[in-house]
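can u do me a favor
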């Protein structure tokens, strides 16, 4: 097998749609017994803005957040940045990802 011609068909033949259970971050924390999050990483192939939009920053204040902005529209990228800055985060693009640090969090 060679990469190149036919690669798309090779990949597509191995993709399988499945329905999987999901829960909110708040529910996940409650079920696991955790009360806080230090690092939140989101990589949901284009749904990152929707997931980030569901985070209740009045209840959960991760020290650092990393999400993939590669597949987001310009409007969704702006909305994510505005939301994070509005909740006290400093943000920076790092390649295809955005890193957000809670203001006052020293970089390591």
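np, heres the sequence
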């Amino acid at each position: 097998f060679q990469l190149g011609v036919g690669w798309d068909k090779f990949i597509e033949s191995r993709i399988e749609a499945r329905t999987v259970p999901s829960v909110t971050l708040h529910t996940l924390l409650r079920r696991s017994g955790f009360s806080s999050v230090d690092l939140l990483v989101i990589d949901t192939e284009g749904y990152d803005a929707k997931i980030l939009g569901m985070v209740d920053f009045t209840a959960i204040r991760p020290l650092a957040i990393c999400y993939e902005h590669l597949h987001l529209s310009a409007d969704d990228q702006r909305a994510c940045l505005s939301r994070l800055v509005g909740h006290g985060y400093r943000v920076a693009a790092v390649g295809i990802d955005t890193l957000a640090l809670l203001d006052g969090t020293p970089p390591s």
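The CA atoms of residues 52 and 80 lie 7 Å apart. hope that helps!!
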